[in-house]
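Need residues for this backbone.
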């Protein structure tokens, strides 16, 4: 089977059999595409690769392409899935990727922004054009609800319930949840829908809540790019996901219980949410050092 057909069949399996999200399917397919290119360069038959050769591929990805441990772990997950697919198709008799050991993921404390920094960031968005009003509404909503960007781009107009100040979100695994949004987000959403969205949509009909200047559903890459430009202009070194991290940390700092935060974020596992308790503690320690002079020389 030629590479293109193999990848297409694998992608279909990810969605239909493994029930992966479109984003995960795209990520896994890209990883296997890189494996196939590497195999051609190394004059290796992908249908005959063993665990030792796969380990060489991972070393190439880690050392030459500078993958961190987290990304290597994701690559291994993709390899295991792909060779399971080959096994089911009768193209392999084994799954060599099952012998690969995933690196231990270091527990990284997410970066967060203070409320003042978030306010400065959102206030810096120019409002003299429809896209600026759209971005203000978008980032206000992401911050107010702790949304993933993949969730924000999937929102439709019908997912907004202004009378209850709720939004319906489809998260990982196509699981739905209802999240309340604040007054600031509501103000900008209403302004965007009334003033800016019609100018962006023109005569194109779209169910999408957030649309591009061409009237189509806004892409994740478009949001990443717009946020990066805003953050860079203010000297803020962070990616847009920091708004979600900041939302979670503020909730915990305000006394919200961990289970409630888990539900709002759409985490399947409570341990994923617990990382934000470390953020909260780290922020508190930093504030303590800043405002208690006698502790400024204190080290953990």
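Answer:
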């Amino acid at each position: 089977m030629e590479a293109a057909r193999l990848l297409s069949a694998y992608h279909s399996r990810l969605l239909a059999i493994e029930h992966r999200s479109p984003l995960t399917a795209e990520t896994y397919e890209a990883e296997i595409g890189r494996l196939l290119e590497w195999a051609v360069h190394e004059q290796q038959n992908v249908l005959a690769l063993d665990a030792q050769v796969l380990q060489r591929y991972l070393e190439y990805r880690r050392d030459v392409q500078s993958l961190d441990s987290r990304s290597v772990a994701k690559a291994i997950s993709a390899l295991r899935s792909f060779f399971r697919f080959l096994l089911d198709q009768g193209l392999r008799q084994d799954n060599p990727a099952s012998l690969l050991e995933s690196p231990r993921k270091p527990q990284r404390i997410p970066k967060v922004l203070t409320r003042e920094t978030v306010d400065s960031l959102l206030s810096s968005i120019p409002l003299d054009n429809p896209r600026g009003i759209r971005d203000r509404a978008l980032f206000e909503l992401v911050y107010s609800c702790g949304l993933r960007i993949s969730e924000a781009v999937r929102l439709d107009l019908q997912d907004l319930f202004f009378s209850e100040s709720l939004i319906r979100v489809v998260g990982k695994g196509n699981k739905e949840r209802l999240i309340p949004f604040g007054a600031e987000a509501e103000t900008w959403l209403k302004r965007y829908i009334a003033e800016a969205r019609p100018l962006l949509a023109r005569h194109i009909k779209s169910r999408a809540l957030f649309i591009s200047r061409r009237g189509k559903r806004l892409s994740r890459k478009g949001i990443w790019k717009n946020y990066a430009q805003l953050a860079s202009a203010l000297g803020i070194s962070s990616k847009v996901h920091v708004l979600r991290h900041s939302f979670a940390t503020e909730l915990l700092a305000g006394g919200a219980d961990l289970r409630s935060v888990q539900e709002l974020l759409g985490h399947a596992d409570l341990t994923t949410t617990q990382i934000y308790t470390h953020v909260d503690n780290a922020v508190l320690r930093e504030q303590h050092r800043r405002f208690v002079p006698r502790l400024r020389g204190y080290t953990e």
